[in-house]
């Protein structure tokens, strides 16, 4: 099995793993159980993975981490948005 195929499979699975949490958070309109610090640190780590992917010219790392970063930033947005909405 080629390294790019393994990277693509790993990227698909780890990226798709975020979607159920995003959907649950959106439907419940609550991110109380979501850690802002964890998602912020995670997002920073994903940015570093993207930089690494660019430096090593690894398309699976660049592509899937870019998507994961978008999902993670969306969760951070939900956390802040729903918190502010609840405080009004």
Set down the secondary structure blueprint.
Elements: H1 3-16, H2 19-28, H3 36-56, H4 59-87
Helix pairs in contact: 1-4, 2-4, 3-4
Q: What number is the mean pLDDT?
A: 93
Low-confidence stretches: none
Helix content: over 70%
What Rg is obtained from the alpha carbons, in whole angstroms? 15 Å
Give a brief outline of the structure.
The protein is built from four helices and no strands. By secondary structure, the protein is an all-alpha fold. The longest helix is centred in the last third of the chain and has 29 residues.
Descriptors:
84% helix; mainly alpha; single chain
How would you explain this protein's 3D organization?
By secondary structure, the chain is mostly helical. The chain starts with a helix and ends with a helix. It is built from four helices and no strands. It has helices at 3-16, 19-28, 36-56, 59-87. Helix content is 84%, strand content 0%.
């Amino acid at each position: 099995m080629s390294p790019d195929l393994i990277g693509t499979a790993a990227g698909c699975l780890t990226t798709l793993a975020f979607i159920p949490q995003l959907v649950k958070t959106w439907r419940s309109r609550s991110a109380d159980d979501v850690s802002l610090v964890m998602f912020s640190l995670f997002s920073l780590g994903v940015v570093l993975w993207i930089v690494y992917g660019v430096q090593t010219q690894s398309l699976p790392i660049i592509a899937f981490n870019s998507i994961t970063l978008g999902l993670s930033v969306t969760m951070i947005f939900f956390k802040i948005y729903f918190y502010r909405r609840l405080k009004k």
